[in-house]
Amino acid sequence: QVSLVEFGGGLAQAGDSLRLSCVASGIRFSTYDMAWIRQAPGKEREFVGANNPTLSNTRYADSVMGRFTISRDNDKNTLFLQMNNLKPDDTGVYFCAARPSGPSLATMFDRHLYGTWGQGTQVTVTS
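User: That's the sequence. What structure does it adopt?
Assistant: Structure tokens below.
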């Protein structure tokens, strides 16, 4: 059975750091694009960033560029999101998502192409 489980959310103050983890099971993790998507209260889901292992490429949303870093440990089937210099606008539920990897970066930020999602973990940043 395929599943993604996120860990590491919580309460932080502006300027703090948090590290989220997403543990995958039931998929050949090293062959999957992995993404972080967040949803703020009352807003649509937005991509934070995504990693394509086929092309060894990681892309980020402009809003988190330079502050957030995505990494993965294929031996442990785990995706990470290191979040530094957090801002109140980073508040939301953070989801990880997976799709089979391929030789194209054009659709990395199309959430409709990610068929497997975790349940999400809440991140709250206060000013």
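The CA atoms of residues 94 and 121 lie 5 Å apart.
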